Amino acid sequence: MSGHRSPADTEKAVQAKLGETPLHHEQMAAVANLYRAAAAVRQHFENSVLRDAELTWTAFVVLWVVWIGGERETRRVAEEAGISKGTLTGVARTLQSRGLLERKVHPADGRLALLAPTPEGERLMTRILPEFNAEEVFVTEALSDDEALDLADLLHRVVVQVETRGAERRLELLDGAQPRPRRSGRRAKRQGGSLRRAAGRTGL
Asked: What is the number of other CB atoms lying within 10 angstroms of the CB of residue 60?
């Protein structure tokens, strides 16, 4: 990531580390600034309009999906919100506990669940959406209307590229193997405890 360096400074710093290894610096700058912009925008919204509503960015997106699209299967909500089913489970429980979301058993398949906004959830979204949009205007204030539309189109093209070709690309990078499970970075407590107990028994 480029941090707060200029693109030129970043290019020089990276090239100094890698020597003659060729890199596509224009694409590096695009992705780095995409990441920084997404993080900055999310933080701004969570510290302004969403804080008053006591919503995280993810909770707002989940509510948005079921508010704008109506009752949805949980797997579709997760897909449209761009989150895992496990993350959705936790977010949905929180929203249910606040009376903003309701969960129903699918009438045709008891193995599936449906999510829908409650009347209170509908009222909250109706109230905060104009405030949310006002902050959308604020964070894009440096852009003209045409530039904002151009940016939206460019970002959509990035999303389409990843969504339509990402799985194929990942398989290519892994030589057809499935990705390994993500590691949390935490030390295995059970194994560590077993080792310590074994060491105690042997006098080590």
From this structure: 24
Considering the chain, what is the average pLDDT of its residues? 85
Q: Taking a C-beta distance cutoff of 8 angstroms, is the pair 128, 49 a contact?
A: yes
Task: Round to whole Å and give the CA distance between 187 and 191.
Answer: 9
The model carries a pTM of: 0.76
pLDDT 10s digits, 54-108: 999 999 999 999 999 999 999 999 999 999 999 999 999 999 999 999 998 877 7
Phi, psi angles (nearest 5°) of residue 118: -80, 170
Distance CA 183, CA 200 (A): 29
SS3 for 28-83 is: HHHHHHHHHHHHHHHHHHHCCHHHHCCCCHHHHHHHHHHHHHCCEEHHHHHHHHCC
Contacts of 28 (CB under 8 A, 6+ apart): 2, 10, 11, 14
